[in-house]
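Hi R.,

As promised on Friday, here is the backbone we talked about, encoded as structure tokens. Could you run it through your design pipeline when you get a chance and send me back a sequence?
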């Protein structure tokens, strides 16, 4: 029986996620399987992978053939590297402790790279937000200046109108006073 490690498609249109399963190669893609060893969700950033490392390594060691996508996932998680290191132990190139040390060093380096990428993305988002805030502040200041200028123009026009009305009232007041005594007499 040819055993494959492959993805099953679940989810709905435009939002698929994939359980990683061990299945007979003759079984349908979403059909019967022997064991589920993990899942892959490409909808998150970065893609979320949960994997039972020991079971995946066991199935690789007993001859299960991964598909290309699953091979990439297993490589990313270190299953393929551990299989390679176990081959070195079997040949006597180094012992089990050395293989584990090399694997742990690789895992730490990979985690550091992933953290650096996350930090860079986080800093990029912060910088973009800061730039957007500065641009919005500039726009708000320009708007405030325009509003202040318009208010100043309106206040000046109102003051000029009041001054003209006051001058007109002042000119009419002596004339009205002159006419008022004439009417009393």
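Update: got your reply. Pasting your designed sequence below so it's all in one thread:
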């Amino acid at each position: 029986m040819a055993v494959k490690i492959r993805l099953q498609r679940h989810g709905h249109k435009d939002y698929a996620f994939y359980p990683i399963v061990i299945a007979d190669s003759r079984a349908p893609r979403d059909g019967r399987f022997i064991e589920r060893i993990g899942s892959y969700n490409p909808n998150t950033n970065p893609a979320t992978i949960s994997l039972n490392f020991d079971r995946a390594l066991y199935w690789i060691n007993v001859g299960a053939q991964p598909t290309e996508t699953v091979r990439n996932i297993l490589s990313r998680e270190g299953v393929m590297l551990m299989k390679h290191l176990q081959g070195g132990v079997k040949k006597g190139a180094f012992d089990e402790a050395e293989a584990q040390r090399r694997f742990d060093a690789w895992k730490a380096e990979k985690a550091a790279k992933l953290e650096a990428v996350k930090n860079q993305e986080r800093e990029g988002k912060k910088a973009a937000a800061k730039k957007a805030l500065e641009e919005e502040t500039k726009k708000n200041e320009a708007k405030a200046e325009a509003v202040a200028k318009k208010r100043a123009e309106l206040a000046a026009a109102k003051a000029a109108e009041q001054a003209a009305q006051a001058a007109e009232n002042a000119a009419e007041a002596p004339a009205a006073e002159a006419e008022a005594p004439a009417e009393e007499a």
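One thing I noticed while checking it: Residues 3-93 form a domain with the S16 Ribosomal Protein; Chain: A; fold (CATH 3.30.1320.10).

Thanks again,
M.
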